[in-house]
Design goal:
With 419 residues, the protein is of the alpha+beta class. It is 35% helix and 29% strand. The chain has helices at residues 49-67, 109-120, 168-180, 191-199, 202-207, 239-250, 254-264, 293-316, 340-348, 364-367, 373-384, 401-416; strands at residues 4-11, 15-23, 28-37, 41-42, 45-46, 73-78, 84-93, 105-106, 128-140, 143-146, 153-154, 156-167, 184-190, 209-214, 219-225, 228-235, 277-280, 289-292, 328-331, 352-354. It has a 5-stranded mixed β-sheet with strand order 3-2-1-6-13, sandwiched between helices. A 5-stranded mixed β-sheet has the order 16-15-14-19-20, sandwiched between helices. Helix 9 links the parallel strand 19 (328-331) and strand 20. The longest helix has 24 residues, at 293-316. The radius of gyration is 23 Å and the shape is globular.
């Protein structure tokens, strides 16, 4: 069997990351990686088409050069406050329409499809659409907690699902960015779903865990129990919020604030030094200044506490539905902040672990870095779910002749570098 090439694009607030990977159906090997500074997004949402397109193109070119492969199609991660998750259920009667079998009828793939469609039959505003239908459990007659009902017999089939919906215009803007660089849009994947695929194992998903992915502009939350997603949410705060707070609180540039956070920042003020003074170079004729590590970390802790308490509020929404036996796993670039586990333990009062991407082969600096949990998770999620009906969004209508012509025209332009 010919190996499959998968490309995933993590379109984040602070970075665009692209991975080109090869899959033989089981294992995945990273062939190329590219990263660029993201300047056209805010809180996970495109606010400047041209800047975002240029950043995507830069990252793709770097990945293509390393992989020695030209990207034609790609999956894109999506997040942001516009993403909403809701738990729904649907029910159908299993019947062959001829006579009532006392033992019930055998449940087929078509029956499963119908009951999922029944669960999706909710009234959505025209500006929103379903991104993922994630089955939580099935119930056959009076038998609950069934993961896969195909082949079982019964009279009544019920599906409990977690629906993830998004704003249509956000999808359209991401498509526009890809079209501008000559890449065909394969589909969207919820970013925390991708992150969970790269850092959580089956035991964590089975026995209950919350994943908190601290990105640049947003913090994503996804909660698992009984191998199923039971809650998703996005908080419009992330590592960039800490940087902005430091810049305002200490009257320094954003670049200086980012450097202070990464080199001297701690998540807990009590662990910082009062005596350790950090010299800040003056800019635009201003004199150098000094700040204690304790003062710096007081700013960082205040914002990180806010993020964690907002995440805790999301956990409280479903606390009666599951036990988080495996506590909380933190990942994303923001999870690299020193002493973050100490602060998280104080807030959540649960076991805290840092999520590191796993089960993928390639570049060590990438596969062992929580900063790239989502990027790696995109290709891993596609590989694991390639045979399932993922409802990963593609165009609602078939490409017409004009659209096909436009797609190849853009590829020619890209090759000739006439953009």
């Amino acid at each position: 069997m010919k190996n499959k090439i998968i490309t995933g694009i993590d379109v984040g607030t602070t970075k665009i990351a692209v991975i080109i990977a090869e899959s033989d159906g089981e294992s995945i090997n990273i062939l190329g990686f590219g990263e660029s500074l993201s300047e056209g997004l805010r809180k996970g949402v495109v606010v400047d088409i041209e800047k975002t397109s240029n950043a995507i193109e830069e990252a793709i070119n770097k990945a293509e050069e390393q992989a020695k492969i030209e990207v034609e199609t790609a999956y894109v991660g999506i997040t942001g406050e516009h993403v909403k998750g809701i738990n729904c259920s649907g029910t159908i009667t299993i019947s062959n329409n001829e006579y009532m079998n006392p033992a019930g009828e055998i449940i087929s793939k078509e029956d499963i499809k119908k009951v999922l469609e029944s669960a999706e039959a909710m009234s959505l505003p025209p500006q929103r659409k379903i991104l993922h239908t994630l089955s939580r459990e099935f119930k056959v007659d009076d038998n609950p907690n069934i993961i896969n009902p195909e082949g079982l017999s019964g009279h009544r089939l019920e599906a409990n699902v977690h629906l993830v919906t998004i704003a249509r215009n956000i999808e359209t803007d991401l498509k526009t960015c890809l079209e501008r660089v000559g890449i065909e849009f394969d589909g969207l994947i919820l970013e925390p779903l991708a992150s969970a695929t790269s850092v959580l194992d089956k035991n964590e998903k089975q026995l209950g865990v919350t994943l908190i992915d601290i990105g640049g502009g947003t913090t994503d939350i996804i909660i698992y129990n009984n191998k199923s997603v039971i809650h998703t949410a996005a908080i419009p705060l992330g590592g960039e919020s800490l940087t902005n707070d430091i810049a305002l609180g200490l009257t320094v540039t954003l670049n200086q604030a980012e450097k202070l956070k990464c080199e001297h920042g701690l998540a807990k003020e009590s662990l910082a030094s009062k005596e350790d003074e950090i010299v800040i170079k003056g800019v635009n004729g201003r004199e150098d200044s000094k700040v204690s590590q304790k003062s710096l970390c007081s700013i960082i802790e205040a914002r990180m506490k806010e993020i964690f308490y907002l995440a805790k509020n999301e956990i409280k929404k479903i606390e009666n539905e599951c036990n988080l036996n495996f506590g909380v796993v933190v990942t994303g670039g923001g999870s690299k902040l020193k002493n973050i586990k100490d602060l998280a333990t104080e807030v959540f009062e649960l076991d805290i672990q840092q999520g590191i991407p796993n089960s993928i082969n390639g570049i060590d600096d990438i596969i062992n870095n929580p900063r790239y949990a989502t990027t790696i998770g995109l290709v891993k999620y596609i590989n694991e779910n390639k045979d399932k009906d993922l409802r990963m969004i593609k165009n609602d209508e078939d490409l017409e002749l004009l659209e096909i012509f436009k797609k190849y025209y853009k590829k020619i332009i890209k090759k000739l570098k006439l953009k």
